[in-house]
Specification:
By secondary structure, the chain is mainly alpha-helical. It contains twelve helices and four strands, in the order H-H-H-E-E-H-H-H-H-H-H-E-E-H-H-H. This is Cytochrome c, mono-and diheme variants.
Length: 297
């Protein structure tokens, strides 16, 4: 019995050690994104708008949505996540970050201190961003005003409060591959990039499994609202009968073909898409109309 107990303890220690190693943060090589001067803030503004950065990170009720003070609350099955201050304040915000730090956050979900970010921050979509867009976005964000409002801690209980476990979660769900296969046109390619990367549409419109991972086989087939109130609609052709022109018009104005209007979080999404060029709205519409029924790709 003593030998068996010793063997089981050793086996448990080995398993714990392996899990610790596997769950370690996966960061970008030091040489990537080393040049902080390679971004274009004018292009970065368009990336900022398409990615919806201000929609989550401006302070609740603030009229100035370019002050990224954080504080908005996002309820989920795992707890309530509170958007942090990502302004240029050096103490409370990200004013001391480098481009490399910023890229690690966007593409790997890892903080400068080497901690995993919760995937309420949609790095599971941003991982598909083009490197130049990351640099341009960083260049633009550095031009925005600072706020000294402190970030609030997330309201997440045990065991989800153990961030190291997110390393195991990422092994299962952090996938840089595209959901839609090779697009047949440049318009579809742009639409795929907007939907699957920058605008992270799948984060809300795709159902999740019990561990919070996106069910890629049910891509954009709709999902329960994270706060438990209602359901986010499907975008697949079997559920959404709008024409491509209807989709593009909705993204510009918020009005549906049935003379209804956008509500909830879609209001902020519409505000963002309305600022993008018509070609981008048309590209998203083309992508939506190219989806298979039922969401399987």
């Amino acid at each position: 019995m003593r030998r068996l107990l010793g063997f089981l303890i050793l086996l448990g220690l080995l398993a714990a050690g392996a899990a610790w190693m596997i769950s370690a943060p996966d960061t970008l090589p030091a040489g990537e994104f080393a040049d902080d001067t390679g971004g274009d803030p004018a292009r970065g503004q368009a990336v900022f708008t398409a990615a919806g950065c201000a929609s989550c990170h401006h302070a609740p009720g603030s009229e100035d949505k370019l002050v990224l003070a954080g504080g908005q609350r996002f309820a989920s099955d795992f707890g309530t996540f509170i958007a942090p201050n990502i302004s240029q304040d050096p103490q409370q915000g990200i004013g001391t970050w480098s481009l490399h730090d910023f890229a690690n956050a966007l593409l790997r979900g890892v903080s400068p201190e080497g901690r995993h970010y919760y995937p309420a921050f949609p790095y599971t979509s941003y991982i598909r961003m083009q490197p130049q867009d990351v640099a341009d976005l960083w260049s633009y964000i550095r031009t925005l005003p600072a706020s000294d409002a402190p970030s609030q801690p997330h309201e997440v209980g045990f065991p989800f409060s153990l961030r190291r476990g997110l390393g195991l979660w990422k092994q299962l769900y952090l996938d840089p591959s595209w959901i839609m296969g090779t697009p047949g046109s440049e318009e579809l390619k742009r639409g795929r990039y907007l939907v699957e990367a920058l605008a992270h549409c799948g984060e809300c419109h795709t159902p999740r499994d019990d561990f919070g991972g996106l069910q890629r086989e049910a891509w954009l087939t709709g999902a329960p609202a994270p706060d438990g109130k209602g359901r986010i609609p499907a975008l697949t052709p079997d559920e959404l009968s709008w024409s491509a022109e209807d989709v593009a018009y909705y993204l510009e104005t918020g009005f549906t073909p049935d003379y209804d209007s956008a509500g909830g979080h879609m209001v902020a999404v519409i505000d963002n898409f309305a600022q993008l060029p018509p070609e981008d709205r048309a590209a998203v519409a083309a992508y939506v109309k190219a989806l298979p029924e039922g969401g399987g790709m």
